Amino acid sequence: MTRSQERYDIQRKQRAKRVAKLRSAGLTVKETALEVGCGREQVRALQLLGERLLSLDENKP
Fold first, then answer.
1. Which residue segment(s) compose the domain that 44 sits in?
2. In terms of Cα–Cα distance, which of 52, 59, 50 is closest to 25?
3. What pTM value is reported for the model?
4. DSSP state for residue 8 in the 8-state scheme
5. Rounded to whole angstroms, how far apart are CA atoms 40 and 4?
6. Residue 2, Cβ density class (10 Å: 0-12 exposed, 13-18 middle, ≥19 buried)
7. Strand, helix or coil at 12?
8. Number of domain units in the chain
9. pLDDT of 33-54, one tens digit each?
10. HEC string of 15-46?
11. How far apart are CA 44 and CA 47, in angstroms?
């Protein structure tokens, strides 16, 4: 994996975590999409990924 690919992967994971946090805070799909800068159709997928990543972070020793 190149350095730019690694950077993109980290940014994607951070965006997913942010979406999950915003959705759990009560923002609508439209509000979340506007806040994060993605399409409404992507919000659910990013939310699921973010929830999984956050749960993995919680389970780290």
1. 3-58
2. 50
3. 0.89
4. H
5. 26
6. exposed
7. helix
8. 1
9. 999 999 999 999 999 999 999 9
10. HHHHHHHHHHCCCCHHHHHHHHCCCHHHHHHH
11. 5
